[in-house]
Design a protein that fits this description.
The protein is mostly helical. It contains ten helices and two strands, in the order αααββααααααα. Helix 2 runs antiparallel to helix 3.
């Protein structure tokens, strides 16, 4: 398109030609005004065409990046399914319960007292107990991730969404550094719940899809994913809740 635009004579050249004519015949004044108007309109049209071209290129880049993300997510899910199956065998038959509607207990043994405190209705005591655990130097990667996510869940339930999101993000970083798909999936689940509470429905959907294979969480994940999708569809086209922030991947 740029070559076609270059083939069009410049507005300055055309105005110069018409000006030469009007110097010889004053009756061409009206024609000159019309030509100048048309040239100005053409200039605006060319600007809009250039903007449209750039916008189309940006959309193509975003589409290619989205496809790349989808392929990465698909690969992660396949690998995580195998790892989750092997890691969940040792937990088979252990009774579980949901605390605060978003935390599946038991998780790690070090968190058992804090989980009991929260389940008994004392969230502040549970938060204090897990805060003390962060001071230990002998915790494992799995314990570290679960401590961050447990803290995130309590803060999210209390309405402190900014800090809840931060702890979920920290957990995801630790899980990825340890190359644990199961732990990363659990972190994505809690990130999704944080985004859901913030009315960032498109972002919540993405996180919940990445966590969709997480053992013992499927019902909660699907229910929240469907809810996020319904809420997103009801938003206006310019609402922030419909937008997908690539920086949060």
């Amino acid at each position: 398109m740029s070559q076609e635009l270059q083939s069009i004579p410049s507005g300055h050249e055309e105005v110069s030609c018409v000006s030469a004519i009007t110097d010889q015949n004053p009756s061409y004044d009206g024609l000159l005004g019309a030509v100048e108007y048309l040239l100005d309109e053409r200039k605006h049209l060319m600007q809009r065409l250039t903007f449209a071209e750039r916008t189309a290129q940006e959309f193509c880049e975003q589409a290619r990046y989205a496809n790349s993300l989808a392929r990465t997510a698909q690969t992660s899910i396949i690998l995580a399914k195998d790892q989750t199956k092997s890691e969940s065998k040792s937990k088979a038959g252990v009774p579980t319960t949901w605390i605060g509607g978003s935390w599946l207990a038991p998780s790690e043994s070090v968190l058992a007292p804090a989980e009991t405190a929260w389940q008994d209705g004392n969230a502040q005591k549970a938060l204090t107990m897990v805060t003390l655990l962060f001071q230990r130097h002998d915790i494992t990667v799995s314990e570290d991730v679960h401590m961050n996510l447990f803290t995130s869940a309590i803060l999210r339930a209390s309405g402190d969404l900014a800090q809840a999101g931060k702890y979920a993000e920290d957990a995801l970083v630790i899980a990825r550094e340890a190359d644990s798909y199961m732990l990363a999936s659990k972190a994505e689940f809690h990130r999704g719940l944080c985004f859901l509470k913030q009315n960032r429905f498109a972002q919540a959907q993405w996180c919940l899809v990445l966590a969709s294979h997480l053992e013992g969480h499927q019902d909660q994940i699907e229910a929240n994913r469907v809810f996020a999708d319904e809420r997103r569809r009801n938003l206006g086209p310019s609402d922030p809740g419909r937008k997908f922030d690539l920086a949060c991947i």
